[in-house]
């Protein structure tokens, strides 16, 4: 099973819509689920994603009140035997992966998906995959825009970051 992952789209503030390469890649890869790790800004930003696959999203610090009222800060769920935690994140981007891990390590999950820093992360800590797809629309804190794919095979999950530029 393949899962598309985006975060920090900031639509329509940073860009009017998602880059076509994101939608094309998710369609071509046949993703069965899409995760959005916050800073959606407006719910309209999710419509193109929803046309491809079901979307699980969390609210971020830059989201409009309507988004913050519609989506949780943290979402924990299981897909094909793999437990996921999705959250946005907070504070200093450099130490964000470690802070995410420390804050949620007792939640008994296999994957922690987060955003906020706009900087991709694809690493394991104590067996937990820490995955940040970066931002497909903004280069704040990083030189390249990006998004991600997660793949579940036989109860194991791996991540890949796809750079746009």
Automatic annotation (TrEMBL):
Q: List, separated by semicolons, the cofactors it needs.
A: a divalent metal cation
Q: What is its EC number?
A: 3.1.4.-
Q: Which GO terms describe its molecular function?
A: hydrolase activity; metal ion binding
Print the keywords alphabetically: Metal-binding
Ranges for domain Calcineurin-like phosphoesterase = 1-154
Metal-binding keyword on record = yes
Q: Which InterPro entries match?
A: Calcineurin-like_PHP_lpxH (IPR024654), Metallo-depent_PP-like (IPR029052), Phosphodiesterase_MJ0936/Vps29 (IPR000979)
Is Metal-binding there in the keyword field? yes
Pfam families named among the record's database cross-references: Metallophos_2
Q: Which PANTHER family match?
A: VACUOLAR SORTING PROTEIN VPS29
| NCBIfam families in UniProt | yfcE
Q: Which family does it belong to?
A: Belongs to the metallophosphoesterase superfamily. YfcE family.
Q: What is the protein name for this chain? A: Phosphoesterase
Organism of origin: Thermosulfidibacter takaii (strain DSM 17441 / JCM 13301 / NBRC 103674 / ABI70S6)
């Amino acid at each position: 099973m393949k899962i598309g992952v985006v975060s920090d789209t900031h639509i329509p503030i940073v860009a009017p819509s998602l880059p076509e390469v994101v939608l094309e890649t998710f369609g071509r890869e046949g993703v069965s689920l899409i995760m959005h790790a916050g800073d959606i800004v407006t719910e309209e930003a999710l419509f193109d994603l929803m046309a491809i696959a079901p979307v699980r999203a969390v609210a971020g610090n830059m989201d409009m009140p309507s988004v913050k009222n519609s989506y949780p800060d943290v979402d924990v769920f299981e897909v094909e035997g793999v437990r996921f935690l999705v959250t946005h994140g907070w504070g200093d981007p450099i130490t964000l992966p470690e802070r995410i891990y420390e804050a949620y390590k007792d939640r008994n999950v296999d994957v922690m998906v987060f955003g906020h820093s706009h900087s991709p992360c694809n690493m394991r800590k104590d067996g937990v995959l820490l995955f940040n797809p970066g931002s497909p629309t903004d280069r704040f804190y990083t030189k390249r825009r990006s998004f991600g794919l997660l793949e579940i095979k036989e109860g194991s999950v791996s991540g890949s970051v796809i750079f746009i530029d």
